[in-house]
Amino acid sequence: MKLATLLYAKNSKGEYLLMERAKDPNKGLMSPPGGKLMFDKAESPFECAAREFEEECGITTRTTDWELSGIVTEDNYPGIGHIMIFLMTLSNPVDELPVESIEGKFRFVDPANLEKENIPETDKLFIWENVLNTDGFFSLKIDCNKQPYSGVIETSPIKTKH
Predict the structure, then answer these.
(1) Distances from the Cα of 102 to the Cαs of 68, 85, 94, 99, 162, in angstroms?
(2) CB of 71 within 8 A of CB of 45?
(3) Which of 102, 110, 118, 133 is 20 to 30 A off residue 41, Cα-Cα?
(4) Residue-wise pLDDT tens digits, 60-84
């Protein structure tokens, strides 16, 4: 199983920072920045969030700037396999759009317009709904073994602090 982060950052207007991915997985689709945890360094999701945000966006943050807002497990995600994703939310607004990089091109997206975006199917069907509508922590299991995908909330929302 792979372990990764997705990084949810907003600007002062409440728009989410998304990247049109230049590489697989999800090449050509709009997704939050993020990346895989470094096993050889026993990296925590908070350390991964700070490192990936700097690598992909060029913006330095501290581990304490990030909150764990959810965990998503995807069973047999196409092109990846089994993956557990830590959904990390940045506590401070980011108003400057990162420059385009080898990872992709960035833009801010109003949450009301997400359904019009070219985002990964599991994000559209399950993840964004919970990111936008859950006050606190959530856990989600998505079965990608057959179409249509199915998803189940495994825990009721609870507040978390780190």
Answers:
(1) 27, 22, 20, 10, 32
(2) no
(3) 102
(4) 999 999 999 999 999 999 888 999 9
Classified by CATH at the fold level, domain 2-158 comes out as Nucleoside Triphosphate Pyrophosphohydrolase (3.90.79)
d(CA 123, CA 7): 13
The token pair at 152 is: 């189940």
Question: Which DSSP letter does residue 15 get?
Answer: P
- Surface-to-core class of residue 107, CB atoms within 10 Å of its CB (0-12 exposed, 13-18 middle, 19+ buried): middle
Helix (H, G, I), strand (E, B) or coil at 135: coil
pTM for the model: 0.92
By the 8 A CB rule, do 75 and 145 touch?
A: yes
**Distance (Å, whole) CA 162 – CA 153:** 22
Distances (CA, A) of 119 to 48, 115, 126, 131, 160: 23, 8, 12, 14, 27
Task: State pLDDT tens for residues 124-158.
Answer: 999 999 999 988 889 999 999 988 888 887 765 55
